[in-house]
Structure formats: C-alpha cells, structure tokens
Amino acid sequence: MKRLLTIPNGLFVVLALVQLLPGRNTRVPDSPAHAIALACVLEAVLLVVTYRFKGVKRRAAFNVCSDVIGFLFGFLIFWTLAAAKLPSAAGSKGAVFPPPGAVIRALVSDVPATLKNIVDSLGLIFQGYLLALAVAIPLGLLLGWHARAGAAASYISKFLSSISPIVYIPYAIVLLPTFRAASVFVIFVASFWPALAGTMSGVLNVERRILDSARSLGARQTTMLFRIVLPASLPQIFIGCNQGLSVSFVLLTSAEMIGARSGMGYNVNNFANFGNYTRVLAGVLVIGIVVTAITFCFNRLQGFLLRWRQ
Amino acid sequence: MDKIAVEGLSVEYEDRNGAFLALEDVTFQVREGEFLSIVGPSGCGKSTLLGVLQGLRQPTSGRALLNGQPITTAGADRAAVFQHYSLFPWMTARGNITFAVSQAKRGSSRRERERIANRFLQEVGLKGFGNKYPFQLSGGMQQRVAIARALAMDADVLLMDEPFGAIDVKNRAAMQELLLSLWEGEPGSGRKTVVFVTHDIDEAIFLSDRILMIAGRPGRVVKEVTTPYPRPRVHEEIVGGSAYFQLRSQLVSLFLDDVRDRIGGEEVVL
C-alpha cells in the first residue's frame, strides 16, 4: 500500500478529478471520457511497472517509467485546466487550444488513416535517410582517410551543410522526375551532411597506436579501411547518423509539402490549413511518438554495434 | 647470417621547433634467434629505432636491413608488441588474434585461424577469455593477448616496444618469465629473433642475450654487453649474484651519466 503513495499516483487522481470540472471551451467539444481513459491506461502501465520491476537493475527502468508517467499526468492536468476548465479556455482562443480529451478522441477515430500516414512517411524517410548513409559513410571514409582531401572537404561540407535543404526544393522539383523523388531528396540532403561530417571526424580521430598496430600486421588498404578505420570511427559515425535522423524528421513536413497526398507531415500541414487544430495536435503527437520509438530502436542498434565500448 | 642489420642509421624529426636529430649513426646487427635488448633513458630515440625496424618510420640517412633487404614498409614478417595496448577494442581477444593470423597467413581457413588463436590464448593463460573484449580485461591480460597475437603470427622477428612498461612490478616479473618460456620453448631449430626495447635495466639483463645501450641527444650506441647466463632462466637464479651486480652497476652508471648530462645541459639552457 505504501508503494502506491507516490506523486505520480496522486497526480493520476487529480487528473481524473480535473476532467469532471465543467468545461468552458465552447469552440471545440471536449471529451473528458477519452482523457480519463488515457489516464487509466497510463496508470495501468505504472501499476504493472511498480509491481513487476524489482531488484537493483530494474530499479532504474522503474524510475524512468514512473518519472515520465508522472510528468505526463502533470502536463495533462495543466493542459486540461488551461484549454477547457479555466477562464483562459473561453472565447476564440479555444479553437487553437483544444483540450486533451478532444485530441485523444480524434486520434482514436483516425487510427486507419494515421497508420497509413506513418507507413508513407517512414517509407519516405528511410528511402532518403538510407540513401544518404549509403553515400555519406563510404565517402566520409575515403575523404577522411586521405588527409589532404579531408581537410578541404571539411570546409566545403561546413559551407554546404549550413544551407537549409528547403532552399533546394525548387531545384529538386525542376531536376528530378517525380515529386516523390524531390521529397526523398530533401530528406537525403538533410541527413547527408551530418552523416558525412560525423564519418570524417571519426576517421580523422582514429588513434595513431591503432593505425600503427594495424600497419605492423601488414594490413592492406581495403582491410585497413573496412576492418580498422570503419569500426574505429563507428562511435562518431553514429553521432552523425543520429543528428541526420533528427533533422530528417524536422524536415518531414517540408518534404511532404512538395507533392505528397499523405504522410504524417502532410497530415499536420493539411489540417493546419483548414484550421482544425484538434487534428493538428493529434498529428504532432503521432510524429512525437513515432520519433521516440525510432530513436529507441536506433539506440538499441547503436548499443549492440558499440558493445565493445565501456 | 645477420637477421637484422642497422647501418649508420640517422633519423630526423620535424616538430614545431624545427627539425631535430633523434638518432645519429647507429650501427648494430642482430643474429638469427638472438634476443637483443635496447636500453636507454626515455627520449633517447630507442622507440624511434624500433619504429624504423617496424617499417613505420623512414631513416633520414643510413639503412635498416632485414634478411639483407632494406626495410621500407611494415609487414607481417615482423610481429610487433607495443607498450600501450594496441589491441583493436572492437574485436574480442580471440578476434584480435585471428585477425592478425589472417593478415600474416593469407589464405588460411577460418578453422585453422581459430585453432591457432585458441592455442596461443591457452599458452598465455587466457583460455577462458577468448570472447572478452579488451575493455573487459586488465592491463596485464591485454598485454598477454598482444603477445599471443604477435606469437600467433609466427613471424621470424618479434619487435617489442616496452611491452611491460605499464604493468606493475609484481606482474611484470611473471610476464617476463612467460615471454621467455614461450620464446625458449619454440619447437625445432628456430627461435625467433627478438628486439626488445626497455628502460628497465633489470628487465634487459634478465631477458637478453645481448644488451645495446643507447643514450644522449641525438641517441647513439654507447655500450654493448653480452649477458653470461644460460637458458632457461628464472629470476631467482639470476638476480642477486655478484656478476649480476657488476653488470647492473656498469649499465646503471652509464644511464645516470646520461641523465645527469641532460639535466646539467638543460640548466645551462635555462
């Protein structure tokens, strides 16, 4: 029982009670039932974690879950009060600040469309992103390995990477055969520079003793590049790829403005044009959740490939 | 025939203060199967000399010969052990050895490489540690893997640059005996030719057939002594005898002379 007397559990009760207050937002119909349902789902997760995650090792995992869920409860309370229950919710501002219940209702009713958007966007992002990595990593290895080319390339790439990929959009539309190719190109450019810069700095920073050690084994050039320099630079390559992934998601909306008729970014942009902010926020939430999930997978992959580090 | 011959070797460095001479007119030979130590205070150029033998550094004048041929590049015909752990951190202990074997013996099968790696891991007492990454091993264990890697390459020449320099005194003696037992125990006629760089005079006396002392700036050969001890050697039989003390004090006084010269010289500069 003592274990349940925590701040997150207290916030859960407050959140449920807050939903029952009379609503003041006249522009967007609220749905307190949906907000309470979400709160119950989160609380259920919290309870499972409380009773299942025991022992020193899982204590940290429990703490993270508990803190995140506590934060979400606090945030939802604030959101509900500001958007539906306090005087601030009344009047024309209410249209731009829908309460959480309304957003969740929109999310639930749009599930099939949302899934299609996720699939379309991920297809676009992975095509552009993987293409960028496939070019940037080998190129970075070669440029970084030939020290003279690397020095010049690092200045050139700094200059080019400071240009927002959005600038290229008209050129991409003119030069590339389809709108989709232009969209892929925006993602490609966005992730290319960070991946290239990360790879080059990784190669340039490989320790001398590692290179000497490999040379003394009589390693040839290709062995040197792929079995020594590549793994030795992998930590920095991952930093670059991580950055590239973040930028890709930031530019998703721009990329999907070009010619897409679906996708997470298109969806948000489309509803913003129609002034449907309930669905704009729902779309933003979806993007956030997808990005978090992909970052999580990416970090697992990184942890596995870099398992040789302390 | 001399396995290694160094003739009138000078090496010049470029750094921020301009060029300076690290080694000047160094000449010596190493016989096949001989264990030669190069001793000297730090900064005397002994690691530079080993760099030339490894083929990682080019002489400014003079030359270094291996089997009568000038050394121009690094190669798997010379196995190296460095002071600072030079294992590849992304490979396991076994992976480090199989990789080195794949470079030294091109065309060897994976099974053969695994077999060789396991044999040498066992010989350095790390049988159960093949799947560990370097960061999971202590400094001494990493250096044992580095020795196993060098031996597994089965090169005729072993070049060692202060391999036990970063290991504590107690383990160092054990590592020295391990190295000797592996080297002395080589089957058949061929013991490997070893060039062993160290600043530890006791280590040099215990391990070597012959000791070359390098001192000064630029570094020159100032002394050459042959050790009188039969093999196999163990510490208890060698350390403490009167011949040992004589040999040791002779080398130590040369060592100190050089250090005093340098400190004195720097005072003048100041």
Can you walk me through this structure?
The complex is a heterodimer of chains A (310) and B (270). With 310 residues, chain A is mainly α. Chain A folds into 2 domains: 2-104, no CATH class; 111-309, MetI-like fold (Orthogonal Bundle), CATH 1.10.3720.10. Chain A has helices at 7-19, 32-52, 55-85, 100-109, 111-145, 147-161, 169-175, 179-204, 208-216, 221-250, 252-257, 264-273, 277-305. Chain B has 270 residues and is α/β, with parallel strands linked by helices. In chain B, 39% of the residues lie in helices and 26% in strands. Chain B contains 8 helices and 10 strands. In chain B, the strands form 2 sheets. A 6-stranded mixed sheet of chain B has the order 6-7-8-3-9-10, with helices on both faces. In chain B, strands 2-1-4-5 form a 4-stranded antiparallel sheet, with helices on one face. In chain B, a hairpin with a 4-residue loop joins strand 9 and strand 10. The termini of chain B are far apart. Residues 266-270 of chain B have low confidence and may be disordered. The chains are: A mainly alpha (310), B alpha/beta (270). At the A-B interface, helix 9 and helix 10 of A face strand 6 and helix 2 of B.
List keywords for this structure.
heterodimer, A: 310 residues, mainly alpha, MetI-like fold, 2 domains, 13 helices, flat, B: 270 residues, alpha/beta, 6-stranded mixed β-sheet, 4-stranded antiparallel β-sheet, 8 helices, 10 strands, globular
How do the strands and helices of this protein lay out in sequence?
The complex is a heterodimer of chains A (310) and B (270).
Chain A: H1 7-19, H2 32-52, H3 55-85, H4 100-109, H5 111-145, H6 147-161, H7 169-175, H8 179-204, H9 208-216, H10 221-250, H11 252-257, H12 264-273, H13 277-305
Chain B: E1 2-15, E2 18-31, E3 35-39, H1 46-54, E4 61-66, E5 69-70, E6 78-81, H2 93-104, H3 110-123, H4 139-152, E7 157-161, H5 169-184, E8 193-198, H6 201-207, E9 210-215, E10 220-226, H7 235-238, H8 242-269
Parallel strand pairs in B: 3-8, 3-9, 6-7, 7-8
Antiparallel strand pairs in B: 1-2, 1-4, 4-5, 9-10
Helix pairs in contact in B: 2-3, 2-4, 3-4
